Amino acid sequence: MEISVIYEDADMCAINKPHGLIVHSDGRTEEPSVADWVLEQYPEARDVGDPWTSPQGEAILRPGIVHRLDRTTSGVLVIAKTARAHAFLKEQFQNRTTLKTYRAFVYGHPKGDAGVIEAEIVRIRSAPPRWGVARTGEEKKHRAAITEWRVLSRGKAILDVGHQVLREKVSYVELCPKTGRTHQLRVHLKHAGHPVVCDHLYAQGRPCLLGFTRPALHAFRLKIMLLSGEEREFEAPLPPDFVEAENRLSNIA
């Protein structure tokens, strides 16, 4: 399993997770995971972290796992090698002192150049599981999730439909989630009317554009504090599908 390491010290490392790779087992399928990679690289970290109980009641080991990215999302992920590092890093995510920055391609052109989406996210009964924004009048069980966004560029994607060539509006955006709800960015963007390009859950029925075959979402940058007290910022280079999409968008904007 090839995973590129962005940073490493005695206590932790930051990696660039490729899309398509699950962070840890879901208890339903057997497939490679980031947790497996951690065990291969750092066997001493086997008991670092909190186990997760699957819907089937199985205790799933998550060695070194501090936070998660969706299977289809690429980008920066930090791994703890020691129990002390795990507790230290986990506290930062729980207290929201980390600074997370994502890049995404979305359908349409937002009206403004920047803004904030603030809306509670709730689970929707469906298969596969999905999340959505709480409806007006629905009992609020949690505090609202918050996402800051800004447009990096706007353009159009070429789409061949039968004998017609259509141009679909697409925007390249930067996102900073201030909270960490499940599928937060994908749900918030759908709520705003600009779902992530090629999102199989939240943009069903819409064509994949700019060459994407997975949701166009990348965890681009993460700012955290190390155990030494030093504040560091880790950046995951844009994957090939993002680079290609940037070129396609700029060529026809």
Helix count equals 4
CATH fold description of the largest domain: Pseudouridine synthase
CATH class of the largest domain: Alpha Beta
Number of domains: 2
Structural class: alpha+beta
Spell out the blueprint of helices and strands:
Elements (H helix, E strand, L loop, with lengths): L3 E5 L3 E6 L16 H8 L10 E2 L5 E2 L13 E7 L2 H12 L4 E9 L6 E6 L1 E4 L5 E4 L11 E17 L2 E14 L6 H8 L25 E9 L5 E5 L4 H13 L1
Parallel strand pairs: 5-12
Antiparallel strand pairs: 1-2, 2-5, 3-4, 6-11, 6-12, 7-10, 8-9, 10-11, 12-13
Can you offer a commentary on this structure?
This protein is of the alpha+beta class and 253 residues long. It folds into two domains: 95 residues, Pseudouridine synthase (2-Layer Sandwich), CATH 3.30.2350; 137 residues, Pseudouridine synthase (2-Layer Sandwich), CATH 3.30.2350. 16% of the residues lie in helices and 36% in strands. Strands 1, 2, 5, 6, 7, 10, 11, 12 and 13 form a nine-stranded mixed β-sheet that branches. It has a two-stranded antiparallel ribbon with strand order 3-4. A hairpin with a 5-residue loop joins strand 8 and strand 9. The longest helix is centred in the C-terminal third of the chain and has 13 residues. It is globular, with a radius of gyration of 19 Å.
